[in-house]
Amino acid sequence: MATVLCYGDSLTWGAAPQGGRFNRNQRWPELLAKQLGEQHEVINFGLPGRTTIWNDPFREGRNGSLAIQSALEIFGPVDILIIMLGTNDLKHYFNIGAYEASKGIEQIIHKVHAPSPHKFAAPKIVIVAPPNILSPKGDLTDMYRGAVEKSQELHQHYQRVATINNCVFLNSSSILQPSELDGVHFDLAANKQLSQSLTPLIKELINC
């Protein structure tokens, strides 16, 4: 049995572009669990607004680097860690780009590789570059001002970080895009597409 921890933001949590949260059986981590089989445990630890390393002045507790070691203890031992973060880093008030988001991912990787106080082995890491942001709608328009162009550079910086740190890499923008309803969040089809793309990667890591 393998424990797979999905560490992300609202795209992992299951935020629906029309508002609210998708049902449990519609979110990509839960779809992944179904495809892997009941002998494996897949944990959805997505949190809306979570960043890589940035403290959000408007929402407490969103700094992903500060919670990762606690998550590995709470759910440990974790065999495979899937990290998909960076979309929230591109909010205009952080004033950073794709390169800085990738360095935030790298800081999380370093924390994951730190010795465990419980002697847990470090999990295998899968880095998923978030999809390109489309034209944000509604309240997201100002929040993601300038983020469309920045998001298109995420995959190249993330791939470099994944390679340097011996992580598996998946570029989600090559297989899906956010819903046109809000330009940021997944629809049902995107959740399904991501789970299907991750399934063979995770199965291969389980069998390594």
Structure description:
With 208 residues, the chain is α/β, with parallel strands linked by helices. It has a single domain (3-202), classed as SGNH hydrolase (Rossmann fold, 3-Layer(aba) Sandwich). 38% of the residues lie in helices and 13% in strands. It has eight helices and five strands, in the order βααβαβαβαααβα. A five-stranded parallel β-sheet has the order 2-1-3-4-5, sandwiched between helices. Strand 3, helix 4 and strand 4 form a beta-alpha-beta unit.
Give a brief rundown of this model:
With 208 residues, this protein is of the alpha/beta class.
Proportion of β residues? 5-15%
The number of strands is 5
Q: What's the domain count?
A: 1
- Determine the fraction of residues in helical runs and give it as a percent range: 25-40%
Secondary structure class reads alpha/beta
- So how many helices? 8
The succession of helices and strands, N to C, reads: EHHEHEHEHHHEH
**Termini, distance in Å?**
13 Å
CATH fold-level name? Rossmann fold
The average pLDDT score comes to 97
- Lateral arrangement of strands in the main beta sheet: 2-1-3-4-5
List keywords for this structure.
alpha/beta, five-stranded parallel beta sheet, hydrolase activity, single chain, 208 residues, Rossmann fold, SGNH/GDSL hydrolase family protein, 8 helices, SGNH_hydro_sf, Ester_Hydrolysis_Enzymes, 5 strands
